Amino acid sequence: MLNNFTLQDIFGAALACALFALIFVAPGYVLGWLLDLFDFTRRTSAVRFVIAIVLSVAVSPIILFLVYHFTSAKTTILFLLLIGIVFSIILLKSKYASLPEEATSFYRTALLVAVGWIIFAILFIVDIQWGDRLYYNVISYDFTTRVAIVNAITRSGVPPINPSYYPGHPVRLTFLYYFWYIPCSLAAQIGSPFVSGYTAMIASVAWCGLALMATIALYLRLRNPAGGSSSTWKSSLLGIGLLLVSGLDVIPALLLIISSRVRYGYTFLNGDIEHWNEQITAWIGSVAWVPHHVAALIACLAALMLIHSVRGRRTSQQIKAGVIAGLAFASAVGLSVYVTLVFVLFWGIWMIVLFFQKERLLSLIMGLAGIIALIAASPFLAGLVGGNNSGLSGEIPMAFSVRMFLPVYIFISTYPPVLLNLIYLLALPINYLMELGFFLIAGILWIQQRRERDLIQNPFHLSEIILLGITVFIGSFIRSTSIGNNDLGWRAWLVGQFILLVWGVDVINWFFPHALEKTKQNSNPPKRISRQLRIFLILGLLTTITDVLLLRTWPMLVDAGIAGFPSGLSPDNQLGKRTFAAKQAYDFINVHTPQNVLIQDNPDDPSNRPIGLYANRPIAISGQTAYGVPMQDFNNRALSISRIYDGSSSWAEIDPICAANSIDIIVMTDIDPIWKNLSSLEQERKPLYQNDYYAVFMCGN
User: Fold this and answer.
1) From CA 498, how far away is CA 464, in angstroms rounded?
2) pLDDT class of 455 with cuts at 50, 70, 90
3) Element of type H or E holding 684
4) What is the pLDDT of residue 518?
5) Cα–Cα distance list, 85 to 27, 30, 37 (Å)
6) Rounded to whole angstroms, how far apart are CA atoms 617 and 588?
7) Looking at the whole model, is its pTM more than 0.70?
8) Residue range 242-265: average pLDDT?
9) Using 50, 70 and 90 to split pLDDT, how confident is the model at 514?
10) Is residue 358 classed exposed, middle or buried when 0-12, 13-18 and 19+ CB atoms within 10 A define those classes?
């Protein structure tokens, strides 16, 4: 086995990437071939794989959920292997349309982009080991919860047992959209011991990015069929390239980082460029932080494309498309309720529009898709409604509120709500200009160029306008209240970002028609507009680059003393050594203890991300995945357990607390107050494992 943790992560993530082909290629390929979706059988081999990836991400989550929920992990894996065999047979026996010669170079470029993205995604997220120091990516803040749930599914099935809450008995985790973690768990089970929940999550980010690229390519191909294969590939590559462009965050974020470091001795952003404002996340950031939300977007767009693809076709073709669209929506429900909410509103409005456009059969098919989605997702929805969700107050988890603009909040925070909302409303244009940058300008230019005949000639345009309108309304005037972050406002904008990206391709083709030509030609666009577009494109690219660099290097900058303190990650410049020690300690627990032992760290230490990343064991109480946990119960248990770490000096004090909370193993760190009593505790009981920063003991009964 590889001794270096970085090499272990790279190998495990690469193997998981290969295994994910069973989940994110094979099912969609088989489905496309059997039902001839998107004219699958008449496509070239390259386009077939693009379709296969989109369809797989759209339907695999709900199919795997249903199979796993009603059977077992072994049956689900056998099902995937059967799909893989059918996929292989189809590949061997199929005949393919040849790729036009003029599109060959674009195809090769697309292949290089895909391979390059996989390599980048893995290296971007894996832990970097430097001697006896180990540095995770800043996105580990969210990975801590996601990996814990992946491991919980591996241990306990679907729905998983809550990995961070044990009130004396197992509690199923139903108050969460967890469909993305099911494929990760299956990849970890198939690839064990080389693939862990952590490396499977890393690989899932790579595949989410691939699926997003495939969705852009397929959408543009269906939306703009004229122009030939070469033009289609060119537009697809341009759309994929725009994933590197974000808003103007680099300007205020760097100003805030520098000014706060100079004035206070530490920075406010903790390595994430998005936190200067109510964010609209850059594409690479969304794929890395929240791949499940992006996957929900892909599933919903697949449903949209399926309906568009069968307009004017035979009834049988429309019914097939409607059924698969319904499965795609069922997947989306379990991937992201926020993204799905936007599409549900859009779906209802679009159905009415089609009905009055005399496409009444198609509107009925869309209704059929909704019914199928409800039926397929009903086991998940039943758990969501009837599970242990007592952490909710019974109120609707969203409220009316104008999108916040944080730069002015510090000056107006004491104002009454009505005046606050009015000020935020007036600030919306500058708010969106900073968050969207090039894409806001592109959207305005696109709308200015549209004519009524364009909406008739290209039916995609009307649906795009409706989708963007709904996104703007929800993202501007409704916020989620279930947690402190406005997840609804952040994730709903994924839909609008996709539409603006597509329009951005149109705008670039209008103003820079030879941008991707091998020979330089002058297109003579209006100089003022083309100059502005270039400036916004450059700033958007700089925003993405800066965000990637900060996310990757921030823990290293903490140890280098550049970030200052408090950093939110570490109390000193030993984060790398402390993380390395944590990895060793939790690896020991994973190898030398049964899967059902209950472990516990200090619930008052919010910086202990390694327990979620590396420990494949349930925790008695933790705020990391306390979804649906009664708040009073959570506070009482956390308060009780924290007494252990406040400075207990004997096992006579510790064991009763462990027994009362069913804790089998406690993990102490050098920053816990109890660490000063470690020598006396060791005289009474030998630790299971100990290094300079971590100690692991049995406790309780």
Assistant:
1) 10
2) low
3) helix 678-684
4) 41
5) 11, 10, 20
6) 11
7) yes
8) 91
9) low
10) exposed
